[in-house]
Amino acid sequence: MPAISPETLKEIRFDEQGLIPVIAQQHDTGEVLMMAWMNLESLTQTLATGRMVYWSRSRNELWRKGDTSGHIQIMKSLLLDCDGDAILAKVDQTGPACHTGKRNCFFRTLN
Predict the structure, then answer these.
(1) Domain extent at residue 19
(2) What are the Cα distances from residue 81, in Å, to 14, 66, 70, 95?
(3) Can you give the pLDDT of all 111 residues of the chain as single tens digits?
Protein backbone atom coordinates (compact mmCIF):
# COMPACT_ATOMS: atom_id res chain seq x y z
CA MET A 1 0.00 0.00 0.00
CA PRO A 2 1.20 3.53 -0.69
CA ALA A 3 2.60 5.85 1.94
CA ILE A 4 1.33 9.39 2.35
CA SER A 5 3.20 11.70 0.02
CA PRO A 6 4.51 14.97 1.47
CA GLU A 7 2.24 16.85 -0.97
CA THR A 8 -0.85 14.98 0.22
CA LEU A 9 0.14 15.33 3.86
CA LYS A 10 0.20 19.12 3.44
CA GLU A 11 -3.44 18.98 2.27
CA ILE A 12 -4.72 17.11 5.35
CA ARG A 13 -6.00 19.46 8.05
CA PHE A 14 -5.79 17.66 11.38
CA ASP A 15 -7.46 19.50 14.27
CA GLU A 16 -5.63 20.89 17.30
CA GLN A 17 -5.58 17.40 18.87
CA GLY A 18 -3.99 15.98 15.71
CA LEU A 19 -7.22 14.25 14.62
CA ILE A 20 -9.43 14.20 11.54
CA PRO A 21 -13.00 12.84 11.34
CA VAL A 22 -13.57 9.81 9.13
CA ILE A 23 -16.90 8.61 7.75
CA ALA A 24 -16.85 4.90 6.88
CA GLN A 25 -19.10 3.93 3.99
CA GLN A 26 -19.77 0.48 2.53
CA HIS A 27 -18.00 0.67 -0.84
CA ASP A 28 -20.54 -1.25 -2.95
CA THR A 29 -23.86 -0.06 -1.50
CA GLY A 30 -23.07 3.47 -0.30
CA GLU A 31 -24.43 2.67 3.18
CA VAL A 32 -22.96 5.03 5.80
CA LEU A 33 -21.60 2.78 8.54
CA MET A 34 -19.96 4.91 11.20
CA MET A 35 -17.94 7.98 12.10
CA ALA A 36 -14.57 7.71 13.82
CA TRP A 37 -11.31 9.63 14.19
CA MET A 38 -7.85 9.16 12.74
CA ASN A 39 -4.48 10.62 13.60
CA LEU A 40 -1.40 10.49 11.41
CA GLU A 41 -0.30 7.12 12.83
CA SER A 42 -3.68 5.44 12.26
CA LEU A 43 -3.87 6.88 8.75
CA THR A 44 -0.36 5.63 7.99
CA GLN A 45 -1.15 2.14 9.35
CA THR A 46 -4.40 2.00 7.36
CA LEU A 47 -2.55 2.82 4.15
CA ALA A 48 0.22 0.33 4.97
CA THR A 49 -2.03 -2.62 5.86
CA GLY A 50 -5.28 -2.03 3.95
CA ARG A 51 -7.25 -2.50 7.17
CA MET A 52 -8.99 0.42 8.84
CA VAL A 53 -7.19 1.71 11.92
CA TYR A 54 -8.72 4.56 13.91
CA TRP A 55 -7.82 6.60 16.97
CA SER A 56 -9.94 5.93 20.05
CA ARG A 57 -10.43 9.19 21.92
CA SER A 58 -11.96 7.41 24.93
CA ARG A 59 -9.09 4.90 25.26
CA ASN A 60 -6.42 7.27 23.92
CA GLU A 61 -4.95 4.54 21.71
CA LEU A 62 -4.99 3.12 18.20
CA TRP A 63 -8.07 1.04 17.39
CA ARG A 64 -7.78 -1.53 14.60
CA LYS A 65 -11.42 -2.09 13.64
CA GLY A 66 -12.42 -5.68 14.31
CA ASP A 67 -9.49 -6.84 16.47
CA THR A 68 -11.89 -7.56 19.35
CA SER A 69 -15.18 -8.20 17.54
CA GLY A 70 -13.92 -9.79 14.33
CA HIS A 71 -15.96 -7.24 12.37
CA ILE A 72 -13.10 -5.84 10.32
CA GLN A 73 -13.13 -3.12 7.69
CA ILE A 74 -10.99 -3.54 4.60
CA MET A 75 -10.07 -0.22 3.02
CA LYS A 76 -11.11 0.16 -0.60
CA SER A 77 -10.31 3.90 -0.91
CA LEU A 78 -9.80 7.02 1.17
CA LEU A 79 -11.11 10.34 -0.10
CA LEU A 80 -10.18 13.72 1.36
CA ASP A 81 -12.92 16.35 1.28
CA CYS A 82 -12.52 19.71 -0.49
CA ASP A 83 -11.42 21.51 2.70
CA GLY A 84 -8.98 18.77 3.71
CA ASP A 85 -10.63 18.40 7.13
CA ALA A 86 -12.63 15.15 6.73
CA ILE A 87 -12.03 11.74 5.18
CA LEU A 88 -14.51 9.43 3.49
CA ALA A 89 -13.35 5.83 3.85
CA LYS A 90 -14.92 3.42 1.41
CA VAL A 91 -14.64 0.03 3.07
CA ASP A 92 -15.74 -3.57 2.91
CA GLN A 93 -17.37 -4.20 6.29
CA THR A 94 -17.47 -7.71 7.77
CA GLY A 95 -20.46 -8.08 10.12
CA PRO A 96 -21.93 -5.14 12.03
CA ALA A 97 -20.04 -1.86 12.13
CA CYS A 98 -21.60 -0.62 15.38
CA HIS A 99 -20.57 -1.80 18.85
CA THR A 100 -24.31 -2.27 19.59
CA GLY A 101 -24.48 -5.08 17.03
CA LYS A 102 -26.38 -2.98 14.49
CA ARG A 103 -25.18 -2.98 10.88
CA ASN A 104 -24.37 0.75 11.13
CA CYS A 105 -24.22 3.39 13.85
CA PHE A 106 -26.98 5.57 12.39
CA PHE A 107 -30.21 3.91 13.52
CA ARG A 108 -31.71 6.42 15.99
CA THR A 109 -34.22 8.94 14.62
CA LEU A 110 -34.16 12.43 16.13
CA ASN A 111 -37.44 13.77 14.71
Answers:
(1) 6-93
(2) 12, 26, 29, 27
(3) 567 888 888 999 999 999 999 999 999 999 999 999 999 999 999 999 999 999 999 999 999 999 999 999 999 999 999 999 999 999 999 999 999 999 999 999 998
